[in-house]
């Protein structure tokens, strides 16, 4: 949770209110968030397969990022309660697919057009 009385909080709130893009960039700047999205897009639909694909992510961070993506309606959590043990799968929503496509374009731009200092 953010400290609600901090200058950083007021600045971020101002930027988010000014333009929705600022809020999106703030969301996407969370470590591992885009990698989790891309991994789901690649077919890793279960927690264990995501964890295996993203070898260095902690269980807590993975669970948090899945909750965030679900909260922003970028993924949907599918519970298969009739199975023993119960199975949970994640899939991108239509909005998540659109965002993932845009991010793919940004990745290509960064790889092909940008020069980053070493």
Word description of this protein:
Helix content is 59%, strand content 10%. The chain has 118 residues and is mainly alpha-helical. A two-stranded antiparallel sheet has the order 1-2. Helix 1 (7-18) crosses helix 2 (20-28) and helix 3 packs across helix 6 (94-113). The chain starts with 6 loop residues before the first helix and ends in a 5-residue tail after the last helix.
What's a concise summary of this model?
This protein is mainly alpha-helical. Helix content is 59%, strand content 10%.
Main attributes of the structure:
globular; mainly alpha; single chain; 118 residues
Sequence-ordered SSE layout with sheet pairings:
Elements: H1 7-18, H2 20-28, H3 33-41, H4 47-53, H5 59-71, E1 75-80, E2 87-92, H6 94-113
Antiparallel strand pairs: 1-2
Helix pairs in contact: 1-2, 3-6
Structural class: mainly alpha
H/E element sequence = HHHHHEEH
Distance between the termini: 33 Å
Task: Tell me the helix content.
Answer: 55-70%
Rounded to an integer, what's the Rg over CA atoms?
16 Å
Count of strand segments: 2
- Residue-averaged pLDDT, rounded? 92
Provide the low-confidence segments as ranges.
none
Beta-strand percentage range: 5-15%
Biggest sheet record: 2 strands, antiparallel
Assembly state of the chains shown? single chain
The largest beta-sheet arranges its strands as 1-2
- Principal-axes shape call: globular
């Amino acid at each position: 949770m953010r400290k609600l009385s901090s200058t950083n909080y007021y600045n971020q709130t101002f930027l988010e209110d000014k333009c929705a893009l600022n809020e999106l960039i703030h969301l996407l700047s969370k470590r591992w968030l885009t990698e989790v999205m891309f991994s789901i897009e690649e077919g890793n639909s279960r927690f264990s397969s995501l964890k295996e694909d993203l070898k260095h992510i902690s269980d807590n961070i993975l669970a948090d990022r899945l909750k965030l993506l679900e909260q922003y309606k970028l993924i949907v959590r599918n519970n298969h309660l009739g199975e023993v043990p119960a199975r949970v799968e994640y899939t991108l929503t239509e909005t998540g697919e659109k965002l993932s496509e845009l991010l793919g374009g940004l990745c290509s731009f960064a790889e092909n057009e940008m020069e980053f200092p070493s």
